[in-house]
Amino acid sequence: xxxxxxxxxxxxxIREIDPSLKYMEEFKMGxxxxxxxxxxGTIHVLKTAQFDYEWGVDHLKQERKILDLANGIRGITHLxxxxxxxxxxxxxxxxxxxxxxxxxxxxxxxxxxxxxxKLENTVRDLHSLGVAILDIQGRNIxxxxxxxxxxxxxxxxxxLLQDTHSSEFERLKEDDLHDLEAYIFE
Length: 186
Fold this sequence. Notes:
- By secondary structure, the protein is of the alpha+beta class.
- It contains 5 helices and 10 strands; from the N terminus they run H-E-E-E-H-E-E-E-H-H-E-E-E-E-H.
- A 5-stranded antiparallel β-sheet has the order 1-2-3-5-4, with helices on both faces. A 3-stranded antiparallel β-sheet has the order 6-8-9. A two-stranded antiparallel sheet has the order 7-10.
- The chain is globular, with a radius of gyration of 17 Å.
- 31% of the residues are buried.
């Protein structure tokens, strides 16, 4: 499909969800639509799933739950606004935009020890709230332009302690910390 068609399609999605948003670009994600948008002079991310795409709908529903719990946690992109479902899209949400590039795009690991510590603290803070991330990988972590800070940008695969047996949750927390060391930190 050509780029002009895709841009028009993205603008149709925005009109259906929130016509006050201005389209900037589409992030290539796959499971859900992820669009960079502007609202009242501030850049945000609009995420939504097609009505009939069950995995994407469930992913965003879980992310909403986790973001509600993790409102005060540093190092994540926070929820700005929940939207109502539309005819074609479910669980649309507006999130903060974090300036930088994903570790996957950069094809790097985090080398700065302060950035490593901040990200580890974010994961531990989420664990203390009863959230295990489970999807700690380069596409879900954005590194700041100065490479001294990082942010988790997707939590839709996360598991909640309230929905998990406590021994299983402990294993999931260990997996998160292992994934940081093995895949994210240099």
